[in-house]
Amino acid sequence: MLEISQIPVTLDNGATEEGCLDACRQAARRVLGCKPSDIAHIELHRKSVDARKKRDVHFVLSARLRLRSEQAERTALARVPSRDAAHVRPVDDEPTSFPAPLHASLRPAKRPVVVGAGCAGLFCALTLAEAGLAPLLIERGDDAATRTETIERFCRTRILDPESNIQFGLGGAGTFSDGKLNTGTKNPAHRLILKTMVDAGAPRDILWDAKPHVGSDILPTVVTHIVRRIEQLGGEVRFGCKLVDIERSDQGSPVAIHVERRSQGAHASSERIPVTHLVLACGHSARDVFRLLCDRGFSVERKTFAMGVRIEHLQADIDRAQYGSAAGHPALGAAPYKLVTHLPNGRNVFTFCMCPGGEVVAAASEEGGVVVNGASLYARAGRNANAALLVNVNPDDLLGADPLAGIDLQRRCEQRAFELGGGNYRAPAQLVGDFLSGRPSTAGGRIEPTYPLGVTWTALDQALPSHIIETLRAGIPALGRKLRGYDDPEAVLTGVESRSSSPVTVVRDRSCTALGAPGLFPCGEGAGYAGGIMSAATDGIRCAQALIDSLSS
């Protein structure tokens, strides 16, 4: 198979998959000197926007194709003009796949248990199920449909369910955060993850879009179909099932877990489940689990994490800043951005989880705290753009020796945001112009906040540590020099964004096994080994494969 990259195509011609494929076929005939009948198969591999020159915004494509034979491909490759040689290469067309079922003699007597049905837990359980291990997947929150109803009820009544919300439930926090699938790392599992999502109902364009996303309106269906696949393969998935304790042997390995199961309108029931292989993929908001791990003697350490605010602009302003006169072209859609600035104080301000045409969501999971996140539907047709605007918190920024000091800081900031908002889960908000000038805001401007429970105009200084506030004040003007209008005085800051990353690491070795705890596999974002949907899903597959490998070693 051959790959041809750097294929330009106009916005009009590249608006559809077929239009892109036509451009790829033309490039193949020109670069490889082949006839249409020589091409046995061609597929779009990557599509990105080149907006470096605002007068010539266009798409750039790469395609993968097979000619009639490997000999034909070698011949074509040899006659590629020197000016195009850097853009043509042979590639391996062997797809990455899930492991084949293990022989019955290698399967453990007790089925593996996976805790947490976020991206890491889902793909870990799916991998184990494909290997014939019939895993038990437990999730403290609800299935996707019930969880959606619970979140809508919270926004309507302001009564929070601490066990089923934006953070907890099928799909984890990623289900209601736009479903961005772009990642800064490369891994053979990425293609497998994307194809699995497409098979489960995600749009096909995630297979080639350079910045793929699924949308919070489609993701509930996708994760539900993945659960059905796990069950079809012999696995079991339990919702409303919360881990409350782990028993350890004298050698440190897990021997049983204790769970509490919620039932309709009834008190929780307890159950002890014997285990030999336990995957902890509980997500970074499972603060009680991290306290449990510390209490039971597992190795938990502080790690760098980030906190800040959500910033909202008019999407039309972001579109113009990114695409110039091409803004609004239907083939482009809402413009994303990703920004970072390095400041003289040695700290960075950076954006994360940018949601074009989206809204700020109420992401609290503890009563008396305000947490914000962002989401957008597949169409990304909302009036505003929003993104997390963050500053790192390093272990040295935290007092004392408690490995969970970062969690304590998060909680204090969330509770302070609740107070600044006036209670009842309103969020504190401030205009950028007022924030930079150090004065409280008393009213909004032309950008209407999208946080669903309402905002209270105030000053955000008391909601976050002083080093974060000072760094944001220095960083916003610098980002305005990178993206025109980013420091718009009427842009809205809403606090607090405190759950962008885990403040702890559950230490594991190269075999993905927790230190001093053979048979336990810390996994995903919560354990400190991922930072988004794709990296979490990849780590889920990695931990599952490590578990499988341990059975045959």
Structure characterization notes:
With 553 residues, the chain is α+β, with helices and mostly antiparallel strands. It folds into 3 domains: 2-90, Alpha-Beta Plaits, CATH 3.30.70.2700; 111-301 and 503-551, FAD/NAD(P)-binding domain; 304-497, no CATH class. 27% of the residues lie in helices and 25% in strands. It has 12 helices and 23 strands. It has helices at residues 17-32, 70-78, 119-130, 144-157, 189-199, 219-232, 287-295, 315-323, 405-420, 432-437, 466-482, 533-551, and strands spanning 2-9, 39-50, 58-67, 88-90, 113-115, 136-139, 236-239, 241-248, 254-263, 266-274, 278-280, 300-302, 305-314, 340-342, 348-355, 359-362, 372-375, 384-393, 427-431, 455-457, 492-497, 504-506, 520-522. The strands form 6 sheets. A 7-stranded mixed β-sheet has the order 14-15-18-13-21-19-20. Helix 3 runs parallel beside helix 12. The chain starts with a strand and ends with a helix. The mean pLDDT is 95.
